[in-house]
Amino acid sequence: MAELGVPLTRHPGFHQYDVYGDLLGLLAAHPVAPLVSLHHLDVVRPLFPNQSICYDAANRWTVSVAWGFVVTVTRGVMPAREMEMPARTFLNWYRRADYKAHAFNTRPLARNQCERPALYYLASARRTVVRTGETTVTRYQRWRHRNDVRPPCRWRIPDPDALLDSVIVLKKPDPGLWDRSPMRNCCRVLSSPRKEGGGNKTMTIDVGVCKDWEYSQV
What we know:
Helices cover 8% and strands 30% of the residues. By secondary structure, the chain is mainly beta. It has one domain: Mannose-6-phosphate receptor binding domain (Cation-dependent Mannose-6-phosphate Receptor, Chain A), CATH 2.70.130. The strands form 2 sheets. The chain has an 8-stranded mixed β-sheet. Strand 2 and strand 3 form a beta hairpin. It holds the Pfam family DUF604.
């Protein structure tokens, strides 16, 4: 191709693999390669009831923002490397195969009920113009299954399920994103509730280009 004068840019892509069930663990992970297509949608759970990981130091929460899909809030500080791996919410297409048959690394679901993440699915998105320029504002709403009963947790870490009803994510356009590919954005928790019974049950997050002192894994 180079001899023909065609410039090429090497960009990692996904291998083809077939899974079924709940794709939350896969789509809420943090791949830097594009997800081109999904197949066998008749055997996966509904998908809709530039990504980043950040931490709410005051509440000791790990916040994972899968842009345009879901925000997960988990008790405790989880390493970014662990958050990047898809959780095993889905199953291999071949019933006899286990998680080792996947072409990518996965992590088991939390056995401790205190480690179960609270899920906030995309509810709305809009663009607004402020003094600093155009900003995309997306709102993620808490999703609870009608049969999902969370048992009491004895950890002293606040329960995001009790404190948070929604998450607001702010994002400014980044014209130079492709030049930095495959780097992820960084996120910062601007505000979050601190105690139960408060009137404001919303967390606000800013997602954007990493500062010099911030770190985003490739």
